Amino acid sequence: MEEGFVERTDPAKEYFFEEGCHILELSNSDRDPGDSVARARVPVAGVTRWHCLEGITERYILLEGA
To answer: Does pTM surpass 0.85?
Structure first.
């Protein structure tokens, strides 16, 4: 990974994903191929489908919005 680089996020690049949430890639670069960070936004009272990715470790931080 290149030291000191800053990823710029463009909110207009958010897209709806078939699992039932809106995804915005925050960091997904060849500079650090072992890392990908995304924001998943779920509508109020919405649910998402179960999924499984082989060879990938997923971590979730859940925030409640207004």
So the answer is: no
